[in-house]
Recover the amino acids of this structure.
């Protein structure tokens, strides 16, 4: 707010603009990691996992519940018995060799394009929550407006590299048509990269058609503009829905996340090393299939990974074995030269409490040190993915910014200049007024805005505002300041026409969306 | 509770004993790390820090505000000008060369002895809190009974390797005599290792006399039984109180933590690398002095490390630079072959909220991956150390147990057996009933007891108990089940006699205890 000459408080566009100008919403470039990775396996142990996975593929085989895939595999020279495909290790190696190690993941704003793979990494918000905790921390079913709010925040939070897709499930629109509105919301409210729904082969085609309106079909033939996730059914099964969506993406040369869905101990052996061997076999089978569909198309080694409490059957996160398996999977993906996706900030807390904080930070550290390229579910995840928390979304994004800084490693640039301050100040002095400090303090040490480090007296004097409310105040402020990134009017109209046509064609009832 | 033949509920010793038998309070052995450490500096960069630190010691010098130390340094061949000691790098290297790389840290129960240094690591509770959040989460000044409760919990929590000393400040006893009661409480309520107060040279002598009653003076001549922390005043100052306490410990061959007290950006340059160079110079100056006092006595490279918010002046924790500096300091300590101490789970949250969880987990990860040998402040710390939270104490201890498991690395023992379950189960099956799972699930995946991973419906049906209350219920249960580890009656009497005599001799008023 500002105060005019006669002392009247003026609020409004001008005041909001003033605030806006002070908040930097420029996206951080794709992280380029400099911190060494955590690699707990020796080269021999990496080969041990590889050999175990290849044995599984050759002798146990993988079930592809999909006649097209089975025919594709037979044509590609694999042994097919019923629905089981037995994959020779030589064939697997030959196929995955054509997966690009790196590519550029394009955004509609080229300033937000992301180099992908190798030592680059990106943060992508959570998706798929059937509930949200909203701007008042109330848990309820989400709407398209809620989804738009998450897309707006994704656009404004510097450490978020994508608007993802259905961060929350918009319940106010028919399931069968939702993918259209979700995709439009991702595109419209943010000019960062986005994800494509893969809830059915037809839905995937719709997403790809909309991407083609935005980027041009020809451009997509040679450029990655939208990622699609395909989950496996562990152990060792891929189903028709996912395989159909995978084919849609691969045929248009768009990157697919090949993601076994692992509940460690329930659908894998009760062993970290053997779980990784199975998961690795599953990922390899899908990665290989992407190259059967289209040789050279981009593909991403993926997984969704929890361990299961043998007391309750509940999925667990932030546990030591999740960290260890992430480290191992990172080594396997690099061994094959394939970029990889993991899940960040998972947890099972019911509220945005200390448990949520512990779990998220443990996972964030693990996936950073594991060298993941695509850190999905990086903001908002809570309650085992059952809700996306608006407050946690904001705080997670700041934690990602801190993780980003850590992974950039040590800054040596001003080492000599900084050292020269030491004799200036001398024993017993202080650095607060030193020119080097004045010049560098803003960049030298990260100052988290969502953490309150003041004294309890000061905190109480300011109303004893808890972190959930601090984050929700921030979310409301940001949404007030939000400015939509300009979308070409012609493109916008074409997208809306497409949606209108498809909504006429698609009956307003369908199976439930399921994707993780 | 149990129900007798006529249905009457019986509570009491028998029932409590039954519960007690189900909780495993066996201390985890000192962690032996197998996970590779995070080492962001090249050998050349380590030498760059070393050279910068040595330049500081030679040309800027270190102030020792203590006539005895100044005389000792002059005798040792250092250049002394006023209170400033200029330390030649050859002298520093020669002195620190005699610090033992490893030793055994003895507990009164030999089963709780700890191998120390190298790839071993121990978790030590927080100390020094002027407030606690108690069993009802009420923030207030602590008493000796509160302190005893923390010592009891330290004794029972498997991941805690020490009862430390004044986890909280007991305000119901005169300051000048507190160190006696604190030490007695540490020794009496736990048979793990403990720490010695260093609030003055005389207080340190009292602690060492009490340790001698427990272990024998002669035993102490060749065995480490109590650690003392000595803080520096950064930049580059050591004061008389700390140096006097240091001499007391070194003379009896007990390990001293040489801990510069760093508020990054305020008492060091606004640069991570230059901050480490200064901190390293400070630590080296004190480590070298321990060997002037007594050649070959154990000593520990220490530090207390925060960064300062340049907006508010508040100390910050869980920030990326704290992690990076821990990684660097670990490399420096290993370069010199000296075991090292860091601070774990620091944070500035006012309640046990998501901020506390994030900060603690970020720091836990950093200090584990940095390879610290002595992880002080591993449980209870909150509000920048102003309070110790009973609830957080319990949860932190479980987080340490999870960090412990992670740092042990991958278990390959049953890899082949676990793999053989995969063809048994086959594509689309599940592992829950498989013999391998039944045999291994309890050890395969950590099941945190303080994290609730059930569905929200189940959580609500059970009363929607938040993590703070869950942890406090656990704390109350444990305190009910507590059994004091037997202390020899003669030793106990001798300790009480010593305290009675010293309390007659020491006036019941003194300066405030200050130690961090």
């Amino acid at each position: 707010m500002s105060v005019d000459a006669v002392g009247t408080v003026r609020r409004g566009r001008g005041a909001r603009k003033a605030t806006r100008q002070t908040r930097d919403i420029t996206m951080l470039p794709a992280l380029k990691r400099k911190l060494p990775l955590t690699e707990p396996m020796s080269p021999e142990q990496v080969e041990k996992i590889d050999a175990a996975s290849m044995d599984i593929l050759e002798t146990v085989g993988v079930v592809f519940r999909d006649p097209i895939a089975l025919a594709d595999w037979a044509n590609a020279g694999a042994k097919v018995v019923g629905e089981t495909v037995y994959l020779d290790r030589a064939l697997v190696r030959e196929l995955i060799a054509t997966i690009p190690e790196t590519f550029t993941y394009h955004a509609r704003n080229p300033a937000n394009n992301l180099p992908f793979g190798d030592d680059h990494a990106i943060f992508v918000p959570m998706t798929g929550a059937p509930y949200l905790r909203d701007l008042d921390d109330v848990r309820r079913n989400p709407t398209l407006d809620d989804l738009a709010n998450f897309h707006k925040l994704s656009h404004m939070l510097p450490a978020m590299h994508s608007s993802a897709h259905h961060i929350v499930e918009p319940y106010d629109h028919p399931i069968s048509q939702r993918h259209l509105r979700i995709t439009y919301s991702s595109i419209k409210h943010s000019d960062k990269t986005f994800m494509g729904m893969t809830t059915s082969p037809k839905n995937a085609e719709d997403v790809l058609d909309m991407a083609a309106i935005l980027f041009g079909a020809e451009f997509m033939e040679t450029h990655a503009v939208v990622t699609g996730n395909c989950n496996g059914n562990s152990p060792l099964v891929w189903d028709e829905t996912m395989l159909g969506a995978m084919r849609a993406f691969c045929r248009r040369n768009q990157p697919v996340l090949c993601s076994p869905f692992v509940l460690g101990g329930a659908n894998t052996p009760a062993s970290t090393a053997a779980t990784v061997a199975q998961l690795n076999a599953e990922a390899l089978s899908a990665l290989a299939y992407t190259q059967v569909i289209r040789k050279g198309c981009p593909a991403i080694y993926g997984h969704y990974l929890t361990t299961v409490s043998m007391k309750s059957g509940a999925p667990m996160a932030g546990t030591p074995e999740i960290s260890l398996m992430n480290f191992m999977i990172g080594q396997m993906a690099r061994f094959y030269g394939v970029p990889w996706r993991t899940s960040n900030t998972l947890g099972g807390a019911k509220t945005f409490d200390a448990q949520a904080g512990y779990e998220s930070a443990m996972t964030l550290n693990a996936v950073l040190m594991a060298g993941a390229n695509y850190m999905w579910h990086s903001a908002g995840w809570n309650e085992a993915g059952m809700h996306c928390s608006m407050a946690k979304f904001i705080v997670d994004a700041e934690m990602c910014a801190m993780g980003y800084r850590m992974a950039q490693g040590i800054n040596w640039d001003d080492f000599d200049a900084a050292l020269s301050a030491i004799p200036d100040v001398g024993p017993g002095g202080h650095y607060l007024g030193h020119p080097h400090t004045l010049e560098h303090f803003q960049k030298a040490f990260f100052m988290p805005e969502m953490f309150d480090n003041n004294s309890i007296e000061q905190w109480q004097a300011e109303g004893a505002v808890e972190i959930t409310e601090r984050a929700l105040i921030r979310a409301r402020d940001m949404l007030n300041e939000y400015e939509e990134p300009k979308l070409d009017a012609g493109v916008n109209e074409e997208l809306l026409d497409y949606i209108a046509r498809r909504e006429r064609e698609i009956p307003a009832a369908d199976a439930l969306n399921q994707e993780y």
Remarks:
- Residues 127 and 166 of chain B are 5 Å apart (CA to CA).
- Confidence is low (pLDDT under 50) at residues 1-12, 510-516 of chain B.
